[in-house]
C-alpha cells in the first residue's frame, strides 16, 4: 500500500455521457420521431479521479443511478468512456487486451457467467480452458476456493438447481479460478440472506489478503463495506463526493454525536440538552451537535442522576443517508462541472 | 494453436452436455429440419406426376434425390445465430462473454457443430428411410462424391460467416427479426431450396449464381448429383471461396464496430 508503487487502478477525469432517445408522449410525437430521433445527453459519470494501490480493498458507494456500475463497466473494459482516461494494471481497459482480461474479473450480482444447464464443475473446466489455467494450478486454486466457500456438494449440481446463495458462491469461485489480480464486484451479496452475506464477505477479504488482490466493490449493504473496505469512494450524481477512510467519512459528514444515558430515575425536560431521539424506560438517547458534545456531556453528568453514559458516532448507514440526501457538496478531488442534464433523481439511498 | 484445441475441447464438452439436457427440444428441431425439404419434395413430385412424369426434365425421383441431398446440406449448414445474437444483445448476456479472454464466436462455432453432430445421428437414418419411400434417382459418381465434401464444408463456413455478420446488425437495430425474416425469404428462393434453380426463369438463375445463397445450398446439391459440368464446379468453388473471404472480412468489421457500439450505449 505504499504510494511509491504504481497504482493498480488509475482514473483521471473519467466520464461517461449516454445519449438516450427522448420522445414526448402522444401519437404526433411518435410520428415525428420516425423521421427525427431526439436524443438527450445523460451524464452517468462526471469527471471522476482516484487511484487504488495494489492490494487495496475499496468500497464504492452511492445511491442507485449514481454511476457506480457504469464506472465498474468502464474499468473492466465493457464500456467506452466519453471523457478522460484510466489504466488498470497498466492496461487501458476498454482495449480489452487478452493480457488484461486474464488478470481481472468482473462479477455482477444478477448476471450469470456459469453455464445454466450443466454441473458447476463442468463450467469451471470451461473457464480453465478459456483462461488457459495450468492443470496443477487449477486443482490447487479450486481446492482453496472449495475450502473457503465449502463448495463440495454443489460442484456436481447443474447451475439451474442451485439456490441464489449457492449460485453466488459458485459464480464467485468461478470468477476467481484464474486468480485475478484485480476484482470488480458489483453487488456481490445482492439478494442474499445475512448468513450468506457474511460468508461471501469473509471469503472476499480472505481472497484479497491471500492473493494481494486489488478489489473495488459496490454494495447496498453498509455491512459489506464496513467489513471489507478501509477506504470508501462515494459518488453521487456521477461526481466524486468523498474519498477516504470510513472514520473520516463519518467525521466529515456527520454533524452529530449520539449520547446515550442511563438514569437512576426518570427526568423531565431532557430536550434542554439536545434533540431527544428516544426514551426507553430509564435509557435516553440524544442527538447533539458535534461541537457541543463535550460541554453537553459535562452538563449531563453534573446535573442529572446518571448511572452510565456513552458517546458514539451515529451508525454509518445514517451518515451515508445524510450524505446522499443532503447532496451536492463537491469533493476534495472530483470537480463537478455544470452539465446540461443530470441522471434522473436517484431513489432514496438504500444503504 | 494448442490453446484453441484446448478451448474447443472444453467448449464441445460443455455444449454436448448442455444440448443433451434438452433432448425433447432437440427432437422437435430435427422434425422441423426434416419436414421442410420433405414438403417441397412431396409438392414437386405431385406436380411432376400430374404433368405426365416430369417438370422441365425433373422426374419425381430426380426431385427425391435433389431434396434428400438438400436435406443433408441444409441440416449441416443452417445456423440460428441471428436469433441468439439478438437475445444476447438485448438481454445483456453478451457482457460476461466480452470480458473473457476468448472470442465469443468460438462458443458459437462449438455450439453449432455439436448440434449438427447430435442431430446427424437422427437425420442420417431418416434419409435412409426416405430413400425407400421416395425412390430417388441417385446419379452419384466417385468424383462428384469426392468434390461434394469440400463443397459442403465451404457451404457451412460461408453460411455461418454470412449469418453471423447479419446477426451483428442487432447491435444497431433493436428489432432485427424483420431483417432476419427478409433474409430467409430471399435465401429460400435464391438458394434453390423452394425449387431447384433450373426450374426458375433463366435470368433468375443467372442472378442467383452471382449471389452467395446458391453457394450455400443448391451448388453442393447439384454438384453431388452430377448436374454440373467440371467448369461449373470449378467456378462454384471459386465463388464459394471468394464469398467466404468477403464474408469473413465483413464479419470482422461488423463485429468490431458492433462491440464498440454496444460498449458505447451501455453494455
Q: Any key phrases for this structure?
A:
A: 351 residues, alpha/beta, Alpha-Beta Plaits, 11 helices, 13 strands, 27% strand, disordered C terminus, B: 267 residues
User: Main β-sheet of chain B, in a few words?
Assistant: 2 strands, antiparallel
Largest interface: A-B, 36 and 27 residues
Tell me the total number of β-strands of chain B: 2
Mean pLDDT of chain A: 83
Low-confidence stretches of chain A: 328-351
Alpha plus pi helix count of chain B: 12
What's the architecture of the domain at 9-103 and 180-251 and 320-326 in chain A, going by CATH? Answer: 3-Layer(aba) Sandwich
Fraction of residues in H or I helices of chain A: 25-40%
What is the beta-strand fraction of chain A?
25-35%
Strand order, main sheet of chain A: write it out.
5-6-7-3-8-9
Percentage beta strand of chain B: under 5%
General form of chain A: globular
Largest sheet of chain A: 6 strands, mixed
Distance between the termini of chain A: 28 Å
Query: How are helices and strands ordered from N to C of chain B?
Result: HHEEHHHHHHHHHH
Which of globular, elongated, flat, extended, rod-shaped describes the shape of chain B?
globular
* Radius of gyration of chain A using CA atoms only: 24 Å
Per DSSP, the total helix count of chain A is 11
The SSE string of chain A, one letter per element, is EHEEHEHEHHHEHEHEEHEEEHEH
Q: Which sequence of strands runs across the widest sheet of chain B?
A: 1-2
Amino acid at each position: 500500500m505504499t504510494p511509491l508503487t504504481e497504482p493498480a487502478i488509475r482514473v483521471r477525469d473519467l466520464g461517461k455521457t449516454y445519449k438516450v432517445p427522448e420522445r414526448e408522449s402522444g401519437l404526433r410525437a411518435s410520428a415525428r420521431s420516425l423521421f427525427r430521433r431526439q436524443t438527450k445527453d445523460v451524464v452517468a459519470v462526471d469527471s471522476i479521479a482516484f487511484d487504488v494501490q495494489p492490494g487495496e480493498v475499496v468500497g464504492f458507494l452511492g445511491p442507485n443511478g449514481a454511476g457506480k456500475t457504469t464506472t465498474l463497466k468502464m474499468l473492466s473494459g465493457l464500456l467506452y468512456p466519453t471523457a478522460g482516461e484510466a489504466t488498470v494494471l497498466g492496461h487501458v481497459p476498454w482495449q480489452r487486451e487478452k493480457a488484461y482480461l486474464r488478470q481481472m474479473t468482473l462479477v455482477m450480482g444478477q448476471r450469470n457467467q456459469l453455464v445454466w444447464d450443466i454441473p458447476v464443475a463442468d463450467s469451471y473446466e470451461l473457464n480453465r480452458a478459456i483462461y488457459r489455467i495450468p492443470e496443477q494450478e487449477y486443482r490447487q486454486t479450486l481446492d482453496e476456493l472449495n475450502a473457503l466457500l465449502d463448495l463440495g456438494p454443489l460442484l456436481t449440481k447443474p447451475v439451474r438447481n442451485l439456490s441464489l446463495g449457492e449460485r453466488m458462491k459458485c459464480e464467485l469461485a468461478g470468477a476467481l479460478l484464474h486468480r485475478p489480480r484485480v476484482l470488480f464486484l458489483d453487488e456481490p451479496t445482492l439478494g442474499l440472506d445475512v448468513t450468506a452475506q457474511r460468508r461471501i464477505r469473509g471469503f472476499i477479504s480472505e481472497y484479497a489478503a491471500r492473493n494481494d488482490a486489488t478489489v473495488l466493490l459496490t454494495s447496498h449493504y453498509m455491512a459489506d463495506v464496513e467489513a471489507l473496505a478501509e477506504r470508501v469512494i462515494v459518488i453521487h450524481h456521477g461526481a466524486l463526493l468523498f474519498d477516504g477512510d470510513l472514520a473520516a467519512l463519518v467525521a466529515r459528514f456527520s454533524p452529530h454525536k449520539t449520547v446515550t444515558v442511563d438514569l437512576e430515575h426518570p427526568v423531565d425536560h431532557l430536550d434542554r440538552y439536545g434533540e431527544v431521539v428516544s426514551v426507553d424506560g430509564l435509557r435516553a438517547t440524544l442527538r447533539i451537535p458535534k461541537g457541543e458534545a463535550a460541554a453537553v456531556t459535562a452538563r449531563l453528568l453534573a446535573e442529572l442522576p446518571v448511572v452510565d453514559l456513552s458517546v458514539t458516532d451515529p451508525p454509518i448507514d445514517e451518515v451515508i443517508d445524510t450524505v446522499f440526501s443532503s447532496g451536492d457538496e463537491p469533493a476534495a478531488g472530483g470537480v463537478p462541472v455544470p452539465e446540461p442534464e443530470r441522471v434522473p433523481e436517484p431513489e432514496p439511498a438504500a444503504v | 494453436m494448442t490453446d484453441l484445441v484446448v478451448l474447443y475441447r472444453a467448449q464441445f464438452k460443455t455444449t454436448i452436455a448442455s444440448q443433451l439436457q434438452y433432448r425433447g427440444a432437440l427432437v422437435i428441431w430435427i422434425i422441423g429440419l426434416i419436414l421442410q425439404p420433405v414438403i417441397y419434395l412431396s409438392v414437386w413430385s405431385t406436380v411432376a406426376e400430374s404433368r405426365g412424369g416430369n417438370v422441365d426434365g425433373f422426374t419425381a425421383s430426380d426431385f427425391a434425390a435433389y431434396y434428400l441431398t438438400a436435406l443433408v446440406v441444409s441440416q449441416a449448414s443452417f445456423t440460428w445465430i441471428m436469433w441468439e445474437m439478438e437475445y444476447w444483445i438485448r438481454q445483456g448476456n453478451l457482457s460476461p462473454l466480452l470480458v473473457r479472454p476468448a472470442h465469443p464466436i468460438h462458443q458459437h462455432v462449438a455450439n453449432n457443430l455439436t448440434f449438427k453432430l447430435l442431430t446427424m445421428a437422427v437425420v442420417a437414418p431418416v434419409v435412409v428411410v426416405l430413400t425407400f419411400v421416395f425412390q430417388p434417382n441417385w446419379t452419384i459418381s466417385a468424383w462428384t462424391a469426392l468434390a461434394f465434401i469440400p463443397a459442403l464444408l465451404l457451404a457451412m463456413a460461408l453460411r455461418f460467416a454470412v449469418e453471423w455478420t447479419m446477426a451483428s446488425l442487432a447491435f444497431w437495430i433493436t428489432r432485427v427479426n424483420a431483417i432476419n425474416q427478409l433474409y430467409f425469404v430471399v435465401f429460400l428462393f435464391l438458394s434453390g431450396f423452394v425449387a431447384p434453380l433450373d426450374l426458375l426463369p433463366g435470368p433468375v438463375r443467372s442472378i442467383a449464381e452471382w449471389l452467395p445463397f446458391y453457394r450455400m445450398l443448391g451448388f453442393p446439391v447439384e454438384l453431388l448429383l452430377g448436374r454440373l459440368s467440371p467448369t461449373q464446379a470449378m467456378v462454384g468453388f471459386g465463388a464459394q471461396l471468394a464469398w467466404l473471404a468477403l464474408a469473413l472480412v465483413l464479419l470482422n468489421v461488423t463485429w468490431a464496430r458492433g462491440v464498440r457500439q454496444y460498449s458505447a450505449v451501455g453494455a
